[in-house]
Sequence to fold (580 residues):
Amino acid sequence: MIFHAMTYLRNSCARHPDKPALADGGDTITYGRLWRQVCAAAPWISAALKARRRPVFVCIGRRADSAAALFSVACSGCFYVPIDPSLPDKRLLDMFQTVRPALVITTGPLPKPLPFPPVLTAGWADISAGPAYPDVVEDLLAAGTDTDPLYCIFTSGSTGVPKGVLVSHRSVIDMIEQFCAAFGFDGSEVFGNQAPFDFDVSVKDLYLSLAVGGTVQILEKKLFLAPRALIERMEERRVNTIIWAASAMKLLSALRTFDKVVPAGLRRVMFSGEVLPAKVLNDWMDHLPNTRFFNLYGPTEITCNCTWYPVTRRFANGEAIPIGRSFGNCRVFLLDGGREITAPGQPGELCVRGSCLALGYYSRPDITRTAFCQNPLQPDWPEPIYRTGDLAQWNGDGDLVYVGRADSQVKHMGHRIELGEVELAVNALRQVDSACCLYWEEKERLCLFYQAPEQDDRGVLNALKKTLPDYMIPNRVYYFERLPENRTGKIDRAALRAQYFTKET
Amino acid sequence: MEQLLSILTECCPDIDFEHETALVDDELLASLDIVMLVGELNETYGISITVDDLVPENFNSAQGIYALVQRLRNG
Fold:
């Protein structure tokens, strides 16, 4: 039995030292080189911190060495927090205050100086180049237990402060074992990595590849602006498996990429993150008749995915693609007011139990208790379940179908956004009196309605960019001298929806 | 050009399309902005921008986008 997620790394490094483990546009790291780097960096981290189970920030890029740095932190007995250093300073500081990292590791050049207060900082190139101590790493691996945290990944929080989801080794080991059982990987996989490492979709690329001894080809962000080059690179680098956000699938289809060039080497396509329209899936299937497609579902809090659906037929335009059934070692069920819903066609809140559950939100016992609560169907022993806030229903085939959200969280460009978090950021601006944010699903636009003495759309957006990541910046802005109010004196969201979310104006 | 600028500003209200000349190279436009933009341009001008038109030269500036639209409308 495996207790430490990095045991997969050690085993694959021993088995295929000459095989490429990680590659980006410029650099290729073989398993042998990866192991040497880890055996230099992990003992350094352990010696520098003199403690286990401490948070370590890793400033990531779309780079092979960023992944190597994450693995080294994990091998040291500490846990990593992947950080995109191009995020606004305010957000980086919020993360810093929440986690209080013991160490910050940088990989590659920084886009701007880090805004952190004094903290121990080290460059990856320095700590990975020293002498390797494989015996020390063996001891470090043996000293852990599988309930120790492995990583902390941040998501949007409705209170205006991002939440750090803390995930244990056990949950990731469980994900690896369930995925390998479901999809039958054989080690010949070359994963075309689309998701950045601070986004939990990438956890699958990194760990599944480690476990099966495959290769992760990191696809540069720029390629997603030039889809033809993207497909050509994927073919050149022999990518045969992709685990992508649905938004990236939509991108290629919307630009009618496959009329010109087809990623013919793809054997498996897995998508998740948001609802994929049937017409997009059909477009992919039409051009890739021998590829297998899987719809995956799950939030970061249950370690990547808890349900999967193998696509076995075409879907009519507008028909919902099911999110399917639970993976083998996890249970998914629907709750409505403490009662389980088993009959098809009735929506309920999708809840999850099993080893996949995250440990909680770092340093936030209040919101952890609400989201990870006692199973109301089973009062006899402590058993946490995770309430996703997603509504779903069973269909006649025994598959789950996603229905919508129970709150004001939206999925935009593959990212989770709490509309309340955007509203708080707007309301904090001096030039704004009041504001509300609504999501126009049909057009996939994040719309901001604000009231102020003077109109200054660009000024408002530029101010927001100092506090919010790009994907949370509204796509459309409407200025009001006075926002409409309902009878209770609140902003009349229904009226705004009815007036603005109709036909293109 | 004026109509185009208003479409561009509508899609990405935070970008100064009149002056920027490295929209793609400086990563001001995200990949999904481009999808949104292409959809709007196709609809408004009755053209079909395809993957081969998606090169930085065409999308780095409003001028470049304007020239692309003109080319496709005449071609």
Q: What stands out?
A: The longest strand of chain A covers residues 384-394. Residues 31-49 of chain A form the longest helix (19 residues). Chain A touches chain B at residues 221-222, 224-228, 247-248, 250-251, 254-257, 259-261, 413, 444-445, 457-458, 461-462, 465, 470-471, 473-477, 504 (CB under 8 Å).
